[in-house]
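Lecture notes, unit on protein representations.

Consider one protein chain, 182 amino acids long.
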Amino acid sequence: MAETNDQTKIPMTEKDVVQKVQTLRGQVNGSREQVSQQAQTDEEKYHALLAYIQEGYYEVDLTGNLTSFNRAMCDIFGYSADEMLGMNYRQFTSADVAQEIYHIFNQVYRTGEPAQTLGWEIRRKDDTTRYVEVSVLLRRDATGEPVGFQGVLRDVTRYQQAQDQYEQILDALERRNTQLQT
């Protein structure tokens, strides 16, 4: 069946078909360019946001090696970006915490469900201790295969220290109250 011109319902010539195809290609290419420009703009906004938030953003591969992170992660851990790239979470934690992290990441891997944890103890480069709250989300490639994890890490050291002091005060009051009763 011959191609027809929509407006006149007369058969289209080969030249008309070629022009229509070229017009459609131009529209498709224009749309692709708009999508590409929008994606680039979105990517720039994403990177700007990550650069200025105070929470640490991280991405790790399936074995727990850092593949991407923001400036706040470097500030929290006390390492330069060059030093942190490729480091494994086990380098920041005790063996017990590393085991807990492994179990949580493994659960996220198996279920695909995100997780949020409180109060992991980490060691900074200067060997001081910090407490962090961490979210964990499974990262997948374009085919849906798991490739790693990502999340946000917040330094909650001040809150943990305040909680510890509060508990010490309560313990001291309880001991004093016990002594007064005897």
